[in-house]
Amino acid sequence: MKKLFVFLIMVAAILTYDVVQSEQGSIIVYSSMEQYRTEELQKQLNEQFPDKNILVMYVSTAKSAAKIKVEQENSDADIVVGLETSYLEKVKDSLQDLSGYQTHEYVDGLTLADNDNKYITWERQAGAFIINKEVLKKHHLPVPQTYEDLLDSQYRNLIAMPDPKTSGTGYFFYKSIMNTKGDQEGLAYFDALEKNIKTFTESGSGPVKLLIQGEVAIGLGLTFQAIDEINSGSPFEIVYPPQGSPYSLTGTAMIKGKNSKEVQEVFDYIANDFFLYDKENFSPEQVLKKQKNKIKGYPQNIPYADMHGISEIKEKERLLELWKY
């Protein structure tokens, strides 16, 4: 993990955005959200600020963090959106202090103060067992209810999980087990689970794609992606293990020294107006005490897993050093 981050920093030091830098007065937003959400943000900013030159750029989480780490206050970016909190913690010294900033009413543990006044919680990305009922029926198999059920040899080559080294989704499943079982038992669990895994996918959406294709019966994947497929007619079912739904967090922030009046106006719109739109229509897992959800069939009162340490980058690096698949 450390070697990867160092490599990304080296790449970030080389990469430049000449076109962006040549545009005087432009406001640059780095988005690590999915493409369709990034495009919607660009569309709404264009409509809200027709006289401002705002460019929303998709930049992956690791690359965004690496660039900010290298460039610090000289970053091309003025604002970051949807960046994993473990990486925000890594670059926290390069973020603008937001003390006194008025935010929505967040649930306990996710407030601005909980984030040392450096970034605002953007979303909770949560997961579950996603079941292709038709594939299970074809193999005459029961629906698994627990992590231990997944170890049964009857599910051999019928399970997909994202690789924790390349996917935040894979990492939060890994972290949840390690929090519950501890290092020794947790690693022993994955030694046993690996025998039933058809593939560890590179991306977090990989298991859902394999479920759609009917190549696996069980995917450890993102709940919101599963609901989207269910609403499109896929024969999927969502199961939450007794430990609860594992999750990771992302945030939004301003780069230190980039808090001009113009940038603050854009940040205010993103952190308040677009934030609500995004939660209601795209990423509805609860982060606010009072939160609306317009997505058909989305689970209510979701039980969340114990995810202590999910935002700690050193803990993530330590655990990824132990991962061997």
Automatic annotation (TrEMBL):
Gene3D superfamilies assigned: Periplasmic binding protein-like II
Stretches that traverse the bilayer: none
Annotated Gene Ontology cellular component terms: outer membrane-bounded periplasmic space
Keywords attached to this entry: Signal
InterPro entries from the UniProt entry: SBP
Domain of life, source organism: Bacteria
UniProt-listed Pfam families: SBP_bac_8 (PF13416)
Keyword Membrane: no
GO biological process: thiamine transport
Molecular function (Gene Ontology), one example: thiamine pyrophosphate binding
Database matches in PANTHER family: ABC TRANSPORTER SUBSTRATE-BINDING PROTEIN, THIAMINE-BINDING PERIPLASMIC PROTEIN-RELATED
Name this protein carries in UniProt: ABC transporter solute-binding protein
Organism from which the protein derives: Amedibacillus dolichus CAG:375
